[in-house]
Amino acid sequence: MKFSRCDKVTTKINKKVAIIGSGPAGLGAAGVLICKGYEVHVYEALPEPGGLLLFGIPGFRVPKKNVREGVEDLRRLGVVFHTNTRVVEGYVEEPGKIGFENLLKQYDAVIIATGTWEERRLGVPGEDLPRVYPALTFLFEYSRAELGYIDFKDLPPLGDKVAVIGAGLTAVDAAEVSLRLGVRDVYIIYRRTINEAPARRSEIERIIRAGAKWIELATPKRFIGDREKGVQAVELIRMRLGEPDHTGRPRPIPIEGSETILEIDSALIAIGEIPTPPVTKHPELKINRDNTIWVDKKYRTTLKGVFAAGDVVIGPSFIGKALSTGIAAANSVDEYLRTGQWISES
User: Fewer Cβ atoms within 10 A, N terminus or C terminus of the chain?
Assistant: First the structure.
């Protein structure tokens, strides 16, 4: 997987750029800036660069080897990666942490590309029972096993019957991982129909052919079980589609009296992720109500010298979209550092 935009760096510019996050947006930005001659430092909380590309998406969809090769290419060109280093509020400099204010002082520009790592919750009774897992967390553990950080036998137990809630790519990947791990019955439960599935119809049809069972127009009302035995069943309520909501898709409406019980051994919740900016309290950095970072059309934030790109700006998206925003943000950084002009269109 190629992130760099050159085979070798032919010029040097005496300015430094920090990139927070090493998913597709961060790596794409690094590939542009290092080739333009800037000194580029990437800060990553995980033990190696790659972000969701490496730790959130299974290797059968995005081969780990390809991501690692792309990272090594950036490293060869001179990109410096600070792994196991979380960027936090304020001034901090200690093992495993660096303050956002430190970066503002040490670098000529900063790009925030921290993605969407917080998972949405259903908010129904029993969601906190043992063996009800956030799907992204489970996929993270599966990726750690693929990468050799843990053994596959140490993955959270799934049992014979798994309910996957949601119909995005995370849900599809969670279902496929479950099948690959030998789960007998994998149910994908979605409150709308296959036509509205965020993962696209073709992905849903593919995973059905692989052996998953598709249940549409249904959503969990509660999970049934206890703290000792964990989840044992999910109560589903049927839905009908109403008028379009703010997303443009038909609004799912519960049908009273349509509840059914589905016995399960575990559940994987995959109803979407929330953007996770590294800082939310800086008085000059505007955070939108949905937790995305506000940017103008050139990916400039409301804080001078700070840009943002990827899913932390646009919300959960596909790899290509996140990558393209990282490239665009890097070009805006280059324009800013060459001209010294900052006119954020707020």
Answer: C
Q: How far is CA 76 from the centre of its chain?
A: 26
* CA atoms of 310 and 321, how far apart (whole Å): 8
Taking phi over 0 as left and psi of -120 to 50 as alpha, with beta for the rest, 185 belongs to beta
The 10s digit of each residue's pLDDT in 4-52 is 999 999 999 999 999 999 999 999 999 999 999 999 999 999 999 999 9
Q: Which two tokens stand for residue 205?
A: 């049809």
3-state DSSP assignment of residue 193:
coil
Q: Which two structure tokens, joined as six digits, stand for 110?
A: 């900063």
42 and 133 Cβ atoms separated by less than 8 Å: no
Residue 308's pLDDT is what? Answer: 99
Residues of the domain holding 210: 121-271
Q: Extract the runs of DSSP E, i.e. beta strands, from the chain.
A: 16-20, 39-43, 80-82, 86-88, 93-94, 97-99, 109-112, 118-119, 132-134, 161-165, 185-190, 213-216, 218-226, 230-244, 250-254, 260-263, 266-269, 273-274, 306-308
- pLDDT tens readout for residues 26-38: 999 999 999 999 9
Q: Residue ranges of the alpha helices (H) in the chain?
A: 24-36, 51-55, 64-77, 100-106, 135-147, 169-180, 201-209, 311-314, 319-339
- What's the pLDDT at 343? 77
Do 264 and 301 share a domain, yes or no? Answer: no
Beta bridge partners of 132: 267
For the chain, how many structural domains are there in total? 2
Q: Which of 271, 289, 307 is the last residue of a domain?
A: 271
Global pTM exceeds 0.90: yes
